[in-house]
Every structure is written in C-alpha cells, then in structure tokens.
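Known limitations

Structure tokens in this collection are predictions and should be treated as such. Users comparing against experimental data should check residue numbering before alignment. To illustrate the layout, the record for AEC family transporter is reproduced below. The input appears on top and the generated tokens appear beneath it.
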Amino acid sequence: MLETLLSVLPIFGLVMTGFIAKRLLPSSDLWKGIEWLVYYLFFPVLLILEVSKANFSEPGLWGGLMATFIATMIIAVILFPMKRIFKIENTLFTSIFQGGVRYNSYVFLALSQSLFGSAGIVIAGVFMAYMIIVINILSISVLNVYGSNQ
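Generated tokens:
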C-alpha cells in the first residue's frame, strides 16, 4: 500500500505542477502547441518504441490482455442497462459510455513506470496499444448508434 502511495505521489505532483504552470503562463496558444506535441508526436513515439521492445512470448502477457479485454467488455455491457434504468438521453449516454470504458493513458504509463520500472513501461505500452484500439472501436460504435449526427 505504501509503495503504491509513494508511486502515485510524483504523478500527483506533476499534475499539480502542470496546473500551476498553466495558471502562471497565460498563453493558451503555448499550451495548445505543447498538447499537440505530446499527443501527436511524443506519446505515439514512446508507445511504438516500448511496444517494439516487448517479448510477446511472455506467458502472462496474453492472459493479462484477455483479462483487460473481458473487464472492459463487462463494464461496457453493464452501462447499457444503466442507460435504460436511469433514463439517460442518447447523446449524454455517449459521454457516459466513454467515461466508463476509457482510462487515463498518461497516469497508467507513469504509474506502471513508477511501480515496475522500465519493464512496466514496456508492458503498459503493449496494453495501451491494444486497449486504445478496442476502446476506440467501442466508443465510435456507441457514438454512431446513440449520437445526434451533428
């Protein structure tokens, strides 16, 4: 428990540093540029580099991927009856669905590195590459069915 807490503290500190920096640096154009670089350049490059290092013959890797897939599907399936039970509008449901099945890649990657070192980054990269595809297919499908087509 203490190890997990100590692993999360630097991530929390980094988020707080970003929050404070955004308040002190008023240029929104600067932040848009930084976000673009991280999201479209640095993050994909990191993901590709780490996945290329993965040992896909690891016995636990495929089981872990399958467990993650099944857990995501269970959450997705549970969300549909909730839409009916709580009488959620279609367009609102698309956002709730995405919030239910998505995860924060940045926190996941940082936590994996903090807890497991460089091996954690490799494994997290494989999981992220796999789950980004699965979650995007699910989210786009739900958006296509329940979205307002605007």
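For this record: Residues 2-146 form one domain. The CA atoms of residues 92 and 135 lie 18 Å apart. Please report discrepancies through the issue tracker.
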